Amino acid sequence: MSVRETALAALYARLGAALAARNPAPKVLRNETVPQRLPPGGLVVVRDGETVEETAILSPLAWAVEHRAEVEVVATTGALLDALLVDIAAAIAGDRTLGGAVEWAQPGASSFDDAETEGAAAARAASVPVTLSFTVAGSPLA
């Protein structure tokens, strides 16, 4: 498994474990289509995102990589959305290395939007960029 995939899987696992304690717990998915019905605890979708920077480190050859994942959050109310965002930030701040999968994980400022879901009033949505910094040997694809 590549270091990038390991980092993304660790982010997904960290958020899933941290948010499972909420009552009701949000549904946490990875790269899934947002379902038409919104769960009562909200929805969190971790998207793979893209690599935003690769810097070569010579002798021996390695790459310092910054990969930006996107965490989409959808909730029925603004208060629930805010609580989920606070919990996501706390989960990442509680273990910046995501169990040793990355050197540093940093959530960024979220952008907000309205979301339409079946059988519910307009929901609120946010997208949070999470920068994952790690080093790989030989190739940025490793």
Short description:
Helix content is 24%, strand content 40%.
Order of helices and strands: HEEEHEEE
Q: Indicate the proportion of strand residues.
A: 35-45%
Task: Classify the fold: give the CATH topology.
Answer: STM4215-like
CATH first level: which class? Alpha Beta
Q: In CATH terms, what is the architecture?
A: 2-Layer Sandwich
Average pLDDT taken over every residue: 93
Q: What's the end-to-end separation, in Å?
A: 8 Å
The domain count comes to 1
CATH homologous superfamily classification: Phage tail protein-like
Protein name: Acyl-CoA transferase
What does this structure look like?
Helix 1 packs across helix 2. The longest helix is centred in the first third of the chain and has 17 residues. It is built from two helices and six strands. The chain is elongated, with a radius of gyration of 16 Å. A hairpin with a 7-residue loop joins strand 5 and strand 6. With 142 residues, it is α+β, with helices and mostly antiparallel strands. The protein has a single domain, classed as Phage tail protein-like (STM4215-like), CATH 3.30.2000.
Q: What labels would you give this structure?
A:
single chain; 142 residues; alpha+beta; STM4215-like; 2 helices; 6 strands; 24% helix; Acyl-CoA transferase
List the helices and strands and how they pair.
Elements: H1 3-19, E1 27-30, E2 43-57, E3 62-75, H2 78-94, E4 104-107, E5 111-115, E6 123-137
Parallel strand pairs: 1-2
Antiparallel strand pairs: 2-3, 3-6, 4-6, 5-6
